[in-house]
Design a protein that fits this description.
OB fold (Dihydrolipoamide Acetyltransferase, E2P), about 190 residues, 8-stranded antiparallel beta sheet, single chain, alpha+beta, two-stranded antiparallel sheet
């Protein structure tokens, strides 16, 4: 009498893993323009990242990153002199959780973030990376500029990457802030 065929056992194990395995989560990022982000945000803060803490989410099934921003100014709303917000994913020890479209932050980096919130939860960045605009000093120290995030193509559509795309050119910080304040107030 022979035991079970090893191939059959392996095939049965694979089928069981697929049927009983963990739920699959998907991330869908809808394209958002600056007007949508400005109107939908509960707060729009410009500041410097002072802390980035990667940890297990409360459910212990995923990794999240809590980012603390020392706020220099609010373009909309106000959540205090420092604000903490959460982004999905991050690197925790030898584990790395990657969420497509999720922004990454570094200490001392300057950003403008468009924040949303639901109930008593920690705020989150609207539109994932679409809600983060990087602020940097001009090479000749002539002023500060804001670089828009790279936009993700919508489902089923391809977008050509074009060198010098006017939608990706840096904008003077003062002009960007004036535009965002007007959009947040509902002006077109």
């Amino acid at each position: 009498m022979h035991g079970p065929n090893p191939r059959s056992v392996f095939a049965a194990a694979i089928v069981a893993a697929i049927l009983v395995g963990p739920a699959v989560h998907a991330t869908v990022v809808l394209p958002a323009d600056l007007g949508d982000l400005s109107r939908d945000a509960i707060a729009i803060a410009r500041g410097q990242v002072v802390d980035v803490e990667v940890r297990w989410a409360d459910d212990r099934h995923s990794i999240v990153t809590d980012v603390t921003l020392a706020v220099e100014s609010y373009l909309k709303g106000g959540l205090g002199p420092t604000v903490q917000f959460r982004v999905p994913g991050g690197e925790l020890g030898r584990l790395r959780s990657i969420v497509v479209g999720a922004p990454e932050f570094a200490i001392e980096e300057r950003v403008v973030v468009f924040l949303g919130a639901r109930g008593p939860m920690v705020p989150y960045v609207l539109g994932l990376s679409q809600g983060v605009f990087r602020v940097s000093r001009a090479a000749d120290n002539s002023g500060w500029f804001v670089t828009p995030p790279a936009l993700l193509p919508s489902a089923g559509r391809t977008v050509a990457v074009v060198r010098g795309d006017v939608n990706r050119r840096p904008m003077a910080l003062a002009d960007f802030e004036r535009t965002v304040r007007a959009l947040a107030a509902g002006a077109r």
